[in-house]
Amino acid sequence: MKRWTAWQNWVAVAAGVYTVVAMTWTTAVGSSNAYMLTGGVVLAVIGAINLAAPGMPAAEWIQLIVAALVIASPWMGNFAMNTPGVAWNTWIPGAVALVASVMAVQPAMKVYREHHPMGSH
């Protein structure tokens, strides 16, 4: 797998950027902006790391966990019930990033195994 070519990680980066940019058209409620900003930035950064250094399954798993946390953030920040519009702007990109991340784990493991064969150490 070449650097900067994994579409799954580009999707995660885009989902993170969307989550951050969505703050401009949603009304902040409580800590919603903090959760959206943190989750979006971390998702974009880990996606970029995975693009720059493919074949790191641990980083792909971290991306998957971050995507799951972005999905959970409306409940963690208590803005899921009162402001569903804001919540949907985290649930949808989080779910998209989660699906893309699940699809990225196996290729990353394959690249890792190709470069680190069993018994080579």
TrEMBL record:
<feature type="transmembrane region" description="Helical">
    <location>
        <begin position="34"/>
        <end position="54"/>
    </location>
</feature>
<keyword id="KW-0472">Membrane</keyword>
<dbReference type="Pfam" id="PF03779">
    <property type="entry name" value="SPW"/>
</dbReference>
<keyword id="KW-0812">Transmembrane</keyword>
<feature type="transmembrane region" description="Helical">
    <location>
        <begin position="61"/>
        <end position="80"/>
    </location>
</feature>
<keyword id="KW-1133">Transmembrane helix</keyword>
<feature type="transmembrane region" description="Helical">
    <location>
        <begin position="86"/>
        <end position="105"/>
    </location>
</feature>
<dbReference type="InterPro" id="IPR005530">
    <property type="entry name" value="SPW"/>
</dbReference>
<protein>
    <recommendedName>
        <fullName>SPW repeat-containing integral membrane domain-containing protein</fullName>
    </recommendedName>
</protein>
<feature type="transmembrane region" description="Helical">
    <location>
        <begin position="7"/>
        <end position="28"/>
    </location>
</feature>
<feature type="domain" description="SPW repeat-containing integral membrane">
    <location>
        <begin position="7"/>
        <end position="101"/>
    </location>
</feature>
